[in-house]
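How it folds:
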Amino acid sequence: MDTAHAPAPDPVPTRPAPGHVDVWLVRPPLPGRPPADHHAPRPPGPGHTPRPSGPSHTPRPPGLSTASQPPGLSAAELRRAASFARPADRAAYATAHTALRQLLGRYLGRPPAALTFVREPCPGCAGPHGRPAVVQAGGGPPLHFSLAHSRGLIAVAVAPRVIGVDVERLPSPETVEACARALHPGEQAELAAAPPGERRAHFGRLWTRKEAYLKALGTGLSRHPRTDYLGSDLSRRPARWAVLDLPAGPEHAAAIAVPGDRPDHITVRWLPAEIPYGGGALYGEDAPYGEDAPGANPGGTVTRSPRSGSTITRSSR
């Protein structure tokens, strides 16, 4: 179907079905600059048909604030945002947590400001500092989420089962050298064998897989990064877990981790940066998923394949 003149889709996302994962990516605004000005353009992928802009094609979803600052944050979140010394860090934190509230509010059919977050018990000590969770009033199927942000990029993952997501800006060669010793010995060997020009990207993939897995476990970095192997040999990775790379553009690496089988379907979308500030349509552009997918290439979703657990299929929206 030719979507060049089709209306925008319903801005309210449905809960991911069993076996499905939704991932939303958003670029935080630069301090002192309107969010829309910082929404970096991305090259279109093969078969991608640009959608026309304008009020008739990008209706503002109901209920989004038109304030100039991210709406709906709790007093604790506002204090935390204010604690960052750098304006860019404050903006990233505020945008990340506002985007999380906006998205979960849509999935759950509740106002973003009314959401209550708690911490699950830590799997190591049973203390109240495990995975974050949202309180779901009225029951219903569980909705799990994970949030990550690094310099220049935010990721929110949503699924009907436990999930962890991580995103990292690719580090400098000096940082790779300094941090490589924290990796599993097998990962260190793979990193050392990578061509010099590919080591930053290789380290980024290793580290985001590791953090996504540790976040899904609920331990975070209290479990030493050297403990678990998340390298390229799938047979050596933790049993009964699926840890998968995501497309995140040329300057970042990203990954998700879920217990059990690989997801059957993963949708990665770029969320317009102005959404937390009250502009744009909730649905952004789809990006292809897969271990070999280019870093930023709108226009696809995911199904499984025997080799890597995913194959890129072009959406026809």
